[in-house]
């Protein structure tokens, strides 16, 4: 029985080798289909996973209130200074009235240039409280983070993010040195570890890098810089914005309370704001959105892959129909020599399945090359058309395909199924031939 | 003794454009074991129809056909395939070897459909190749052989399942006269060794070399002429 099984495959492969080019092209069709299943799923997984990670960095139990610059409805030319955004009063109101709050951090961010001994770096000056450290999952590398007494005494201290420290100090130990911001100096008391960037929420909240930050007590920032940020330094009359807080991050006691809390926050702030100058977002929602997007993505990728497999299958069927017609006489001979209809069906099915299995196996190998090939393609693209690549979203530029383990047996199973599905019709046609007619066929 | 083939009132009608064509009309004869029969007739005489029925490739409209002790008149397609695989050895005018298989593999094909292709059968195929004088061509493809050699392979193939009879359809039709003689003497040798052979031919000089000529005309049995009696054959 085993020997017979072996023999039947050997015969099938012999017949396929009669037309090596034709068989190879048919295999190529399935190869492309199977490899694309694995590739597309891997790329989809890579993109959605890194998006999900970025959102998780925002914290699923957080509610984020951001200042938004209101739309300039009546931007009169004489009104050069606009005041808007969330205020210290808002912060105090929220802190005192919302029961589900575990931590609440007021944040003021300003773009500034930092310098130390002739080195310069543009980055974010972040005024915050000590709780900023926990709420953003920062980790300290050297020294310490800000403390309540720093805040209370409005000290001229700062903590550097990993990137800032590396850029300004390279091999020097920054602790105890003074970093200059505008005309002020801040003594470095600590350096944080590298932290993965978080996702953008849209509106004013673009993705946060965290790596070029300088953290100072928010009280110091208010004291030394104030609320007014000039946008045309030196000119007269002055132009600019007055903003008290850029952001309030609220950590809620339970993930279940996140949605309620955000509604409450929205209602309370709306009562005190006439202008549309704040936005409340919850990363939890984003996370759920990202999951939906991921499903959509997988479905979409799956659809494309399915289409290419279908095309491969049609290729197989096409070839097998041609083969059956071409080998009519052989079918007649085999029938005369005692082959039953099912023997003929089996013979041709084995040929199609051989083709599709071979396509499936090579396709899996092709699919596994996904990562190096993507890296290589990125390298080539960066060299050939860097301008175009730079315009792509960060998520796509840095995508690392992650091969979904299930996609391998899936792709293989589909290729075999396609072999059977698209092989069955040509095989039945072969078996249905009248042996007398088939023998007479020239 | 039961004859190798028994035909009783065998009739085959075809329907062509609403008209009934009587391809065979109530033909009866026996082929005893060890006989060498030519079936002759002009084209349209019913020769091909007789061949298809004897080869179990077709079913008669009426009448009965026995191969050995088995009535094969109304068997289904699968059963007929089994009969072809086990009881009949086919030899065709155009050899009908399978091009992608070697000589040895071609000889083995009928065994394969009986599920009898194994190590032992391999040796048997070798012996048969030697019998028809092709020991040195075992791994050649049909296209690498001459017509006469291909027909020898086909004869070896027809013997591999140890059939009740060999059914040869114009086996010398594509061959020159020298090769025709070779093939005919090979068939005669096999017949002398006890093989029953039924050969369809339209060449009188080929038919004359067999033991008996059955002539068909317009679907009916015209004559049944014995040239050499079975007793004589056994004596020789």
Rg over alpha carbons of chain B: 18 Å
Biggest sheet strand order of chain A reads 3-4-9-6-8-7
Number of helices of chain B: 8
Percentage of residues assigned to helices of chain B: 25-40%
In order across it, which strands form the biggest sheet of chain B? 6-7-8-3-9-10
Number of strands of chain B: 10
Task: Give the amount of beta strand of chain B, in percent.
Answer: 25-35%
Counting copies of identical and different chains, the oligomeric state is heterodimer
Total beta strands of chain A = 13
Average pLDDT across residues of chain A?
85
Low-confidence stretches of chain A: none
Shape of chain B: globular
Structure class of chain B: alpha/beta
Terminal CA distance of chain A reads 35 Å
Give the helix level of chain A as a range of percent: 40-55%
Biggest chain-to-chain interface with counts:
A-B, 24 and 30 residues
Radius of gyration of chain A: 33 Å
Report the average pLDDT across residues of chain B. Answer: 90
Q: Assign an overall shape of chain A.
A: elongated
What do these coordinates show?
The complex is a heterodimer of chains A (442) and B (236). Chain A is α+β, with helices and mostly antiparallel strands and 442 residues long. In chain A, 55% of the residues lie in helices and 17% in strands. In chain A, strands 3-4-9-6-8-7 form a 6-stranded mixed beta barrel. Chain A has a 3-stranded mixed β-sheet with strand order 2-11-10, with no helix packed on it. Chain A is elongated. Chain A starts with a helix and ends with a helix. The model of chain A has no long low-confidence stretch (mean pLDDT 85). Chain B has 236 residues and is α/β, with parallel strands linked by helices. Chain B contains 8 helices and 10 strands. Chain B has helices at residues 47-54, 77-87, 103-113, 119-131, 147-159, 177-192, 204-207, 230-235; strands at 5-16, 19-31, 36-40, 62-67, 70-71, 88-91, 165-169, 197-200, 212-217, 220-226. In chain B, the strands form 2 sheets. In chain B, strands 6-7-8-3-9-10 form a 6-stranded mixed β-sheet, with helices on both faces. A 4-stranded antiparallel β-sheet of chain B has the order 2-1-4-5, with helices on one face. The longest helix of chain B has 16 residues, at 177-192. Chain B starts with a strand and ends with a helix. The mean pLDDT of chain B is 90. Classes of the chains: A alpha+beta (442), B alpha/beta (236). The A-B interface holds A 3-4, 7, 11, 14-15, 17-18, 329-330, 332-341, 343, 435-436, 439 and B 52, 55, 57-58, 77-78, 81-82, 84-86, 90, 92, 96-101, 109-110, 112-115, 117-119, 157, 161.
């Amino acid at each position: 029985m085993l020997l017979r099984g072996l023999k039947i495959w050997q015969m099938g492969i012999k017949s396929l080798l009669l037309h090596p080019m034709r068989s190879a092209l048919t295999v190529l069709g399935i190869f492309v289909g199977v490899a694309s299943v694995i590739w597309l799923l891997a790329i989809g997984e890579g993109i959605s996973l890194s998006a999900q990670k970025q959102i998780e960095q925002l914290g699923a139990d957080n509610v984020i209130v951001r200042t938004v610059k209101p739309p300039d409805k009546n931007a009169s030319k004489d009104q050069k200074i606009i005041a808007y955004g969330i205020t210290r009063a808002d912060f105090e109101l929220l802190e005192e009235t919302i029961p589900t709050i575990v931590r609440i951090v007021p944040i003021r961010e300003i773009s500034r240039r930092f310098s130390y001994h002739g080195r310069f770096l543009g980055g974010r000056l972040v005024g915050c409280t000590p709780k900023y450290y926990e709420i953003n999952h920062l980790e300290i590398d050297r020294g310490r983070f800000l403390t309540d007494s720093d805040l209370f005494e409005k000290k001229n201290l700062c903590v550097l993010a990993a990137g800032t420290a590396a850029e300004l100090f390279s091999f020097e130990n920054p602790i105890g040195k003074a970093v200059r911001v505008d005309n002020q100096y801040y003594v470095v008391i600590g350096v944080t570890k590298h932290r993965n960037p978080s996702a953008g929420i849209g509106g004013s909240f673009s993705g946060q890098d965290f790596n070029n930050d300088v953290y100072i007590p928010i009280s110091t920032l208010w004291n030394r810089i104030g609320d007014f940020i000039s946008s045309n330094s030196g000119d007269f009359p002055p132009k600019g914005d007055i903003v008290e807080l850029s952001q309030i991050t609220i950590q809620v006691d339970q993930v279940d309370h996140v949605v309620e809390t955000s509604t409450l926050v929205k209602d309370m702030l709306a009562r005190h704001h006439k202008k549309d100058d704040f936005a409340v977002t919850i990363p939890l929602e984003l996370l759920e959105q990202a999951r939906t997007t991921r499903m959509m993505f997988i479905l979409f990728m799956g659809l494309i892959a399915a289409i290419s497999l279908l095309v491969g299958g049609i290729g197989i069927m096409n070839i097998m129909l041609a083969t059956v017609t071409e080998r009519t006489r052989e079918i007649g001979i085999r029938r005369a020599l005692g082959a039953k209809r099912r023997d003929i069906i089996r013979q041709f099915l084995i040929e199609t399945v051989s083709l599709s299995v071979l396509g499936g196996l090579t396709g899996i190998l092709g699919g596994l090359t996904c990562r190096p090939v993507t890296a290589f393609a990125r390298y080539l693209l960066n060299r050939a058309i860097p301008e175009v690549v730079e315009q792509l979203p960060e998520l796509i530029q840095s995508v690392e395909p992650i091969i979904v383990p299930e996609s391998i047996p899936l792709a293989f199973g589909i290729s075999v199924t396609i072999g059977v599905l698209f092989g069955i019709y040509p095989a039945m046609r072969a078996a249905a031939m009248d042996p007398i007619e088939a023998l007479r066929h020239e | 003794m039961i004859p190798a083939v028994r035909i009783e009132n065998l009739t085959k009608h075809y329907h062509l454009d609403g008209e009934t064509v009587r391809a065979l009309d109530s033909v009866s004869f026996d082929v005893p074991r060890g006989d060498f029969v030519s079936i002759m007739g002009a084209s349209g005489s019913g020769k091909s129809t007789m061949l298809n029925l004897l080869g179990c490739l077709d079913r008669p409209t009426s009448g009965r056909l026995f191969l050995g002790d088995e009535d094969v008149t109304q068997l289904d397609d699968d059963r007929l395939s089994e009969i072809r695989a086990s009881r009949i050895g086919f030899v065709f005018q155009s050899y009908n070897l399978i091009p992608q298989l070697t000589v040895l593999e071609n000889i083995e094909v009928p065994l394969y459909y009986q599920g009898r292709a194994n190590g032992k059968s391999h040796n048997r195929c070798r012996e048969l190749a030697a019998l028809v004088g092709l020991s040195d061509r075992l791994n050649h493809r049909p296209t690498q052989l001459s017509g006469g050699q291909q027909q020898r392979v086909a004869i070896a193939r027809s013997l591999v399942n140890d059939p009740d009879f060999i059914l040869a359809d114009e086996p010398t039709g594509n061959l020159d006269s020298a090769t025709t003689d070779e093939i005919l003497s090979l068939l005669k040798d096999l017949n002398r060794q006890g093989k029953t052979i039924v050969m369809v031919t339209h060449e009188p000089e080929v038919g004359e070399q067999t033991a008996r000529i059955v002539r068909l005309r317009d679907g009916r049995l015209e004559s049944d002429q014995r040239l050499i009696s079975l007793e004589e054959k056994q004596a020789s």
